[in-house]
Fold Translation initiation factor IF-2.
Amino acid sequence: MGGPLAAKKPMPVPVKKTPVTDRRRDGRIDVAAAIEGEDERSRSMASVRRARERERRQQELQRLRNDGVKVVREVVVPEAITVQELANRMAARGGEVVKALFRMGVMATLTQTIDADTAELVVNEFGHRVKRVSEADVEQGLTGTADIDTDLQVRAPVVTIMGHVDHGKTSLLDALRKTDVAAREAGGITQHIGAYQVTIAGGQKITFLDTPGHEAFTAMRARGASVTDMVVLVVAADDGVMPQTIEAIHHAKAANVPLIVAVNKIDKQGVNLDRVRQELLQHEIVVESLGGDTQEIQVSALKGTNLDKLQEAILLQAEVLDLKANPDRAAEGTVIESKLDKGRGPVATVLVQKGTLRQGDLVVAGAEWGRVRAMLDDKGRQVKEAGPSLPVEILGLSGVPTAGETFVAVENESRAREISEYRQRVARDKQAAAAGAARGTLADMMARVAAGVQKEVAVVVKADVQGSAEALVVTLNKLSRDEVKVRVLHSGVGQITESDIQLAKASNAVVVAFNVRATTQAREMANRDGVDIRYYSIIYQVSDDVQAMVRGKLAPIQREKFLGYAQILQVFEVKRLGKIAGCRVTEGVVRRGCGVRLLRDGVVIHQGELATLRRFKDDVKEVTNGYDCGMSFANYDDIRVDDQIECYETETVAAV
């Protein structure tokens, strides 16, 4: 079988299969057919199916319309809405809405915003119902409902200490707190609102707000009175009733809160308490010894006399007021103070008035919002929650809120963002309106300036906290005269930046820096462009200098000349000399006998003179950039590693 015959067996011829005709390909056309136009391209089955489905849906929709059954929606229309958003709310195509607007004579694209009246016409055209709402409705229900009496619990009283400058308000509070706040205040005066809670011998708590007594801080004092339960009016037994004492009385009356008079400095010789009582009587403050209902406590902050009686008087008044709050609800309260901290970002001191604020809560404070990343009490300790009457610093806000604004804890981020954006928009609109009004008056002012009829002093204000910036603006605005106007171009919180210098240069303005410093770039730009930056830590000096500018009495004045910066690397304890700072000069030069400021986190904490300047063990006249040296301050020892030393000289220059 495996012979030659088998080898010659013919191989099977492969059957040529007839190709299966692909109907989808039948429609292919060649060049001739295309020219003659005899052939047409056929459609795919899927295309035919889609067309039939679309036709069926249209017929069904038409039948519904013919039957008179149509979906009528309630369309919410705010004060302004984009065309696309309006189409979405009506479940209509954007193009149809654009066509409807075109028929009304309004040319608008999908991304353009139309007003509520136009939107209402469009909604009516499409046969839907309109529900008009205001943008302000986002704030509805923000402040919670009224509390039920059974939910209320006793809370600590909030006491504001008020009085004339240098009458001993902060010293009295220090005696109560067993701390020394006054020593850390520049010039011995309080320039920020402080909020503290103390626990007294019986275990009861009292929250104190320490407001500055200087007249520039009227607005801050008014804010303190608006959140307080009672006011302790401090009157010095030797001075009696002074101008700011009268202002404090007015604030207390305006806030409709009870008053307790603390007559301080009774340890001084020759004080006349009857004179103080008679002066108070002139302002309708009748103390108990004269048959009135205002408690009067004679104290000495220096000796600690009768502090227990003052605490008893506060607690007695609190008992009469029956102060209660519900801690089991979303937190509400007031921003007492705010600032931009170099290392921590926006920081707000808040007083919780209702509910309990917890770490991680979402809050809206004025036009800012954020999640509470951390909370610190008045002693700098971290706390997880803060109940009614507890003042805390909160971190985590998107920006620095305005002091005096309310803060509220909200349920979710979208609500917080929505409220914040609305409030920022309102603030921008107000600012734009004010700028528009100012432009008209500015043209008139410039005409008067050109004619020599009126001059002006333009000022850019930067401060360490919001309250100080606000107080400076109030002070400067009061200095305007008929012939010379003081115009505050901008006020803000934080370091002086290049944008501040550019604004000052464009307007030929002076930059007033209150407890803050310029960045290196800003300082270089100011030197290059000839912009005058004036540094202050006491508000009296600001008003005196600007008043001198207004009156044109700037004949020979003392002006600072910046010398250099040094960084503290180590601190040594040396017998007979105290603490010595081991420093490296990081910029410019340090000279013996120059003025110095100690900066901690960009804030001035001491101003004085150099006591010693040494290289190794030798006294030297100056040390230049890049070299190490040892320094000590005259009568000051609170120095730490990483503090910065700013060196300057004072020179006398003629007024321009």
About this structure: The chain has five domains: 74-133, 152-325, 332-422, 454-553, 560-653. Confidence is low (pLDDT under 50) at residues 1-7, 36-40, 438-442.
